[in-house]
Structures are given as C-alpha cells and as structure tokens.
Amino acid sequence: MFWWRALMNAVPTNLWLYRRGLRETAECPWGCNAEESLTHLTCSCAKLSTIFEIAANWGFQVPKFNSWNELLDGLRSSADDNPSMGRFYCYIIYQFWRARNDKNHARSCSTPSVIVATVLSMMPRPYSLPAMEQWCTAQPSGLPPDKLWCTPPPNWLKFNVDASIKESAIAGLGVVARDHMGRLLLAAGRHIEQWDVTTAEISAALSIREVATLDMMDYDGIIIEGDCRNAIQWLQAAFHRLHKMHHNIEGPDLTFLLDFKQVLFQFVPRESNQPADFCARMACFGDFLWDGGSVGAIPQTFLSLLRRESDCM
Ligand SMILES: [Zn+2]
C-alpha cells in the first residue's frame, strides 16, 4: 500500500502536507535541513544513508539513487536481474517511513540497525525469488571496498560453506559459523564421494545440519553464504518450494532449515569465502570439527584467515 501511494505521489511527506496547507514546515523530521520530498524520503535523507551503511556492513549493499525517477529505473532493472535486492530496498523504505512517522509523532522510533534487522527478518520466504546478490555494480566483488567478509546482524549467524573436489572424486565439504562480532562458533569439514561441483557445494550447505546446535535455532536468523552461484540459487529455490508445499521435495532434504527463524542465501565472491575453502580442502584428508571455544586445537593458518577477514570488518 505504501509503495502504491508512492507511485501515485500520494505519500504525505512533510513537503506534500506543507503544499496543501496542512503543515507549517516542509522540513525533514530527521534534521537534514532539507525539504522532505518523495526523493528525499526514498533516496537522499541522511538517516536513510545511515540505514544503508549498516545494511552494507552486513553484506547487503544497494546503489545510491539521486532522484525518484532514477530509483524507479533502478527498481525496474532489479526486477529483471536481482528482484530480491529490489524487494529489500522497498522494504527498507517502508520501515524507514514507519520510523519516520514515529519520529514525527514524538514516539520512540526504531534505530537504523533495528530497521535493517527487521527488514531481513521479514524478507518473505514463500516466494520463489533468486538468491540475493549484491546490487552494486561499482565494485567487481559487490562488497564494500574495504571488506573481505561482512558480519551478520546482531543475534544472527552466518554460515560460510564451500566444497573442494579432488581428482579421485573425493569432495571435501567445509562449514564455518560466525556471529555478529565475527567470533568463530565452529568450523567443520567432512568428506564424501562426489565429482560434481554444484552437488558438492549443495552438500556443503546441507552439512550445516550435522553441526548445528539447538541454541542456533534461537537466533533471529541465519545467512548461508557460498561462492558457487548455481548451488546457492538451487538451495534458495528448493527451500522456497519446501515452504510452499509444506512437505518434502525430491532430492536432498532441507527440512532442517525450517527450524531456523529466518534463512537467507547469499552468493559471495571466492575471495570472501576463504576460511570455508580452507576447511573444504582440509576435509579431503579427513573429517574434523573445531569448536570456537577451544582455539588451541585449531590450525594457525585457519585462524589467520579468520583474522584477515575480521581486520577489515
Ligand atoms: Zn532527511
């Protein structure tokens, strides 16, 4: 409804109200010293920029638009190439509008972090959408320029998964779980017989089932990140089908993912998935499970890969 009103230019921004004599000032309630027009509300408000910065720090980067028409063009191209990110942008604006109404009526309003976390929790699961991919085209990797890896939001977990295939058709599967502080919860490796890369990468994500602990279900959500686009897209589509039909689909069993409050899949470039890649390669030589609580038992090379990522967090 909000976006329908926006498209009809019927959102009661302060400028909209001022022009109709319903408000004494047209200024943005966040103290931007600018008129609160539709463009300001959806593209250029300083508060909105803070919200997008936080989203980018968590790995969800969207481009900056300079006008309402530019935004519409961006959403149009997102509908073709990357609908999940377009939806993400629209949800952000709607939650921002709600916070802005609270602010306008002197009620307590959501902080930027709460707004982004709410949007991620609300991303609809029952729709068949392609996996979220970075929208930003300026960076080849799509990540913010100073980042190798992005932390998930507070009270979320991120699983990085990867597979490595040997000539002997032995595939190593790697999983690395970290929290919003970038702290290692666990890292695991397991080997299976497999020669197909995409299937192995899917199996790597499915091996989360074997390492997930009960308390992980209490988190607000998990983000599963992998560097194989086909596998991530397959997982996302299968997970959504599972949701729609409420029963098992053919192929690997993903029902364990329903135990998490929210599950998002993200494709990341290879250089942002190095700890999981390390685990996958190690797993070719034997299974292992490293507990983040006892770092003494974890190889230094792996710890330094983690450190390298958190140094640019
Ligand atoms: Zn503003």
What is the helix tally?
12
Percentage of residues in DSSP E strands:
5-15%
Coarse shape:
elongated
CATH topology of the largest domain: Nucleotidyltransferase, domain 5
* Assigned CATH superfamily of the largest domain: Ribonuclease H-like superfamily/Ribonuclease H
Order of helices and strands: HHHHHHHEEEHHEHEHEH
Structural class: alpha/beta
Tally of strands: 6
Residues in helices, as a percent range: 40-55%
Instruction: Give the strand line-up of the largest sheet.
Output: 5-4-1-2-3-6
Biggest beta-sheet profile: 6 strands, mixed
Protein name: RNase H type-1 domain-containing protein
Organism: Dendrobium catenatum
GO molecular function: nucleic acid binding; RNA-DNA hybrid ribonuclease activity
Structure overview:
GO terms for molecular function: nucleic acid binding; RNA-DNA hybrid ribonuclease activity. With 313 residues, the chain is α/β, with parallel strands linked by helices. It contains twelve helices and six strands. A six-stranded mixed beta sheet has the order 5-4-1-2-3-6. The longest helix is centred in the N-terminal third of the chain and has 22 residues, at 83-104. It is elongated. 38% of the residues are buried.
